Automatic annotation (TrEMBL), chains A, B:
Pfam families: DAPDH_C (PF16654)
Organism encoding this protein: Virgibacillus alimentarius
Family of this protein: Belongs to the diaminopimelate dehydrogenase family.
Lineage of producing organism: Bacteria, Bacillati, Bacillota, Bacilli, Bacillales
NCBIfam families referenced in this protein's UniProt entry, alphabetically: DAP-DH
Protein name (record): Meso-diaminopimelate D-dehydrogenase
Catalytic activity of the protein: meso-2,6-diaminopimelate + NADP(+) + H2O = (S)-2-amino-6-oxoheptanedioate + NH4(+) + NADPH + H(+)
UniProt domain Meso-diaminopimelate D-dehydrogenase C-terminal: residue ranges: 124-277
The EC number(s) this enzyme carries: 1.4.1.16
Record InterPro entries: Diaminopimelate_DH_Ddh (IPR010190), Meso-DAP_DH_C (IPR032094), NAD(P)-bd_dom_sf (IPR036291)
GO molecular function, one term: diaminopimelate dehydrogenase activity
Record text on subunit structure and interactions: Homodimer.
Keywords assigned: Amino-acid biosynthesis, Diaminopimelate biosynthesis, Lysine biosynthesis, NADP, Oxidoreductase
Enzyme category, top tier: oxidoreductase
């Protein structure tokens, strides 16, 4: 275990669990401990040998952990925890409230600059891999349009919304890219379409016994903000079907840049993800960037960073020589 | 023009021409001059206002050019020119002889370290964008397989080969990814297939008058190295059809990583290019990395670099603040 990167996890929901699984796949990392606000004995880690500690104990691990992966929520956990942890540790997180990223960056940067630590914020797939592809493909093809499509994926917010409809016992909602619009984009047609027109919504609903399914369908399709501006399909299924077919958390999406070069040649750059497990993939991205946070700090590159500041080689366990020889 | 990055182009074939077009699209760059071994008056640039000079004049431009884009061939031009130019200029090139990259890197690095210049080598789409995606997706998903598919694209080497067949007047060859194998990969089936099985080859041949087309087809399909191990289709067409339908230089391809996380969840990461013009896209990538070479040098990061050493933000004309606010 000598020279492995020593990693800690703070917060143990779906993302923390995914991080534990991902660290186990990375040959140059070891998981030192999971920190939680819950009672340690109530935290059900995958590998029973993993140490689980109360979050207040983290301060005793500054010499034993090279980088902390913060797995809390963006609404309240991360804005509070990451500045606190950046005083003591290199950190990585998946803060994903797009509109608040600048102020979040500033608050983490201030602490990390002072402490001499390195904090990579807003890592995952969007923000994260999709962000990288939006910026790089636009840099390569300045004349053109970038389209981001999300899905097919289970949307937590929209699933919550359908479950609040009167007469709905249970249900899920999938966001699905419009095949028609995707085809136009890939053909270089540069359609002028809003986010709403790029996606359709499909709901699988378990109705309460005797509920009026026509009214439920109408209530969903006309729901402001969530559904009214989208093409929405509602399917009624049984509780058994819901459990059998809709328990997973798939997601994914597409970033497509359609540009022109020279005298009107179409050039299409596409990046896509097709994920069986959204939280496990997000955790895998965060874990790879934990490596980068540690290495950047070793090189003296301190303060808050984003994926835009991290060269691809830093997230790989291979040496620069190996990458040049075997991957370039 | 005040603060624009001042760029020079060395060599003016398809790639140099593409670089001229790409620089014109980049708002923060200006093209200072094109340098060629040919007589300047015989070099037919796109914009007649662009200065064309003999390559021997480059040495007088060390104070007037921030970065040189080297557009020569990998076989003999670049191994000679890039070390020579790295004594005087920051450089970018598209050296693509994969097997020789380590020694090429070493020879450029030695010069650039001594001169204090920055040279980004082997930039383009493969090596280049595909290389980045191979490394990043493997870092995210350590357990899995990476598949690179090339095409649909016109292959210069294989087109030359079919044109050498007796009775062939003219012809082109396209490399095409196997749809069947791509489908298996995208389904997470991790097929164990060689490069040969991942691609099929399609030839469009203009036969000489009276030539035996059956014998030509057989000669092509049984040609060692080039065709014998591939599924190959041969179509006979007229010279007019060839000129009308096969004059462009399309190319592209796919890098697909199929990995597993947690307890066997499939995660698929795919990057693809669909290019009307291969040389124009390669030139667009090289041009964006010219910006990075200049900026890295401004920051004191000297010597030879590859795309693995360049953070995504460096190739974008936007500031780090803009990227965090508008693209993350």
């Amino acid at each position: 275990m000598g020279n492995k990167i020593r990693v800690g996890i703070v917060g143990y929901g779906n993302l923390g669990r995914g991080a534990e699984a991902s660290i186990a796949q990375q040959s140059d990392m070891e998981l030192v401990a999971v920190f939680s606000r819950r009672k340690p004995e109530s935290v059900n880690v995958i590998n029973p040998d993993v140490k689980v500690l109360h979050i207040d104990e983290a301060k005793n691990y500054t010499e034993k952990i090279d980088v902390m992966i913060l797995c809390g929520g963006s609404a309240t956990d991360l804005p509070e925890q990451v500045p606190a942890f950046a005083e003591m540790f290199n950190t990585v997180d998946s803060f994903d409230t797009h509109a608040k990223i600048p102020e979040y960056f500033a608050s983490v940067d201030k602490v990390a600059q002072a402490s001499g630590k390195t904090s990579i914020i807003s890592v995952g797939w969007d923000p994260g891999m999709f962000s990288i592809n939006r910026v790089m493909s636009e840099a390569l093809l300045p004349e053109g349009n970038t389209y981001t499509f999300w899905g097919k994926g289970l949307s937590q917010g929209h699933s919550d919304a359908v479950r609040r409809v009167d007469g709905v016992k249970n249900g899920v909602q999938y966001t699905i890219p419009s095949e028609e619009v995707m085809k136009q984009v890939r053909n270089g047609e540069n359609p002028d379409v809003s986010k709403n027109d790029r996606h359709v919504r499909t709901c699988y609903i378990v109705a309460e016994e005797g509920a009026d399914t026509e009214r439920i369908e109408k209530d969903i399709k006309t729901m402001p903000n969530y559904f009214v501006d989208y093409e929405t399909t509602v399917h009624f299924i049984t509780e058994e079907e819901l459990k059998r077919d809709h328990a997973a958390m798939p997601h994914g999406g597409f970033v497509i840049r359609s540009g022109k070069t020279g005298e009107g040649n179409n050039q299409i750059v596409e990046y896509s993800l097709n994920l069986d497990s959204n939280p496990e993939f997000t955790a895998s991205v965060v874990t790879a960037y934990a490596r980068a946070a540690y290495r950047l700090n070793q090189e003296g590159q301190k303060g808050a960073k984003t994926v835009y500041d991290v060269a691809p080689g830093y997230i790989s366990p291979k040496t620069a020589e190996e990458l040049r020889k075997d991957y370039l």
